[in-house]
Amino acid sequence: MAGVEGRSHDMGLHNEQLSGRKMQTFFSPDDSENCVYPWSYDVDFNKRAEIDMADMTPTEVNLKIRELMAEGHGSIVVKNPGSRHSIGVGILNKLNITYEGSLGYFGCGLIDGPNVRITGRVGWSCAENMMAGTVVIEKNAGSTFGAAIRGGDLVCKGSVGSRTGIDQKGGSIIVGGDTGALTGFMMQRGRMVFCGNAGKNLGDSMYDGTIFVGGEIQSLGVDAVPGELNDIDRAWLTRKLKLYDLLPDKGVDHFTKIVAGRQLWNYDNLEPHEKKIVL
Amino acid sequence: MCGIAGVIHRGKTSDIGSEMTQMLLSLKHRGPDSTGFAVYGKPADNNNEFVMRFKVAEQEDLGKGSNIRTVIADRRAAVDARMAEHNAKILTEVDATEYAYRYTFGFDGDDAALEKMTRYIEELDGAEILSLGRGLELIKDLGDATVVSDQYGLKGFQGTHALGHTRMATESDVDIRSAHPYWAYPYNDISVVHNGQITNYWIMRRQMEYKGHRFLSNCDSELLAVYTADKLNDGYTLEDSLRQSIEEIDGVFTYVVATKDCLGMAKDTMAAKPMVLFESDELVVLASEEGAIRAMIPHEIDTYDPYDEEVRVWQA
Q: In chain B, what residues touch A82 (CB-CB under 8 Å)?
């Protein structure tokens, strides 16, 4: 078996076993380092390049990034992004990339692997569906920040808008400031950390995952309940916040932990029509 | 989807015509159907001097027969005659387009007399007063920001604050009447731009009509202008009016409202419509997308998204 199909078999993507309601494949950390897409480029982090996108369209910039990766550039600096939309999307490669300025909507969406730094702010839906890698934003972010991310660290050192991390399926969303309403709506896995305050309906209808809030919570959503902050949580919070220079002087003991109450019908053993009969 | 924008300079005037043109051009992709400006110039020293923007036809009417220009000239002459009948003394006249005009005029009567005159003018076929006030000038037409701005000679317009709108028509027609910004007579100098949908529009409209307010379009955004005017007339502050609107108006909306010396914004409970805000000691700029703010301020700045139910008001 050759080509893309062969690589996907080599990666074990066809060997998953269904067990009950769960489908999980475990990788060792060592293996995951070597787990790359068949079409990814072999880049050298010491080989640097710059793009000035002042007079380029988003499509031209995204193609240019791929062109540079194909040439082996592992460190790319993008100047003058000018808050334009859909920049740096779909990068499925190891890469260090810095945007000197702000991005618009859907910046860094659908990425798997790169380390991204944005010196300005980002608009709505930053890093949507991110699979792996690191995205660090130095200023604020818009709404639906990190919607449906599945892995990696998504960090905003300022504040973020509403509906942060809706439908999150993994990874970590770490915010130095506040977050708006309906944060964590239908969250399924992963962790969120907010050093500041959270708006109303936090964690509404969350299935699983953990939300940590350092400030005030305006209100909890349906089926979101307080959990007990344990030593593992404290260790994880300390390590992550320190890593991104966001650790509060007073530590992490004051953080409130929010988890799913698991009272939604989805966790009932009965099917809806059976539930009607019982009721 | 629509794009909205606002700018207010604190304690000084600026070329707000060019600034708003730049901002709206960068929001063109959010609404290609029409573009509108509400610009606030320095009011005349004389309290009895007003500026009026009005039209006597739609852009598309120009293609309707060889006689249309004569019809337009007759309608304009009728407007002049009706103003004269009410002792309004026309001071200056500018032909913004073939069918839209800017008049300054002196008027010694009270608000009721002014309202009577405007209603009389708007009884004329095709005539619509786009704005009337001491500072507000409202310009809206089909086309993008550059087309409308050039057509109406907006670049170089000196003023303290402005609103702008790029419209994607969803609830009503593609014409000047359905374009933003909206204002509400007889409460001069109030204008509104809006991004969203108001779901209790007809209920609220009937309440306003019952109180004697007029509506010129079937666009839900006009309700916000009338609602604001009604609240201010009842003695509410602009901030209180904006807060109350979040309670009383249903739907998803973000809107920006201007009075003769203030700019305000409100976001609904779901925060479903975008707004990015930059604030400094010298000016405040807000828009649906940060790109519009960057079009005016190219250097690196700190911006943020207002949250759900957030209300802000700034003084010129």
A: 291, 294
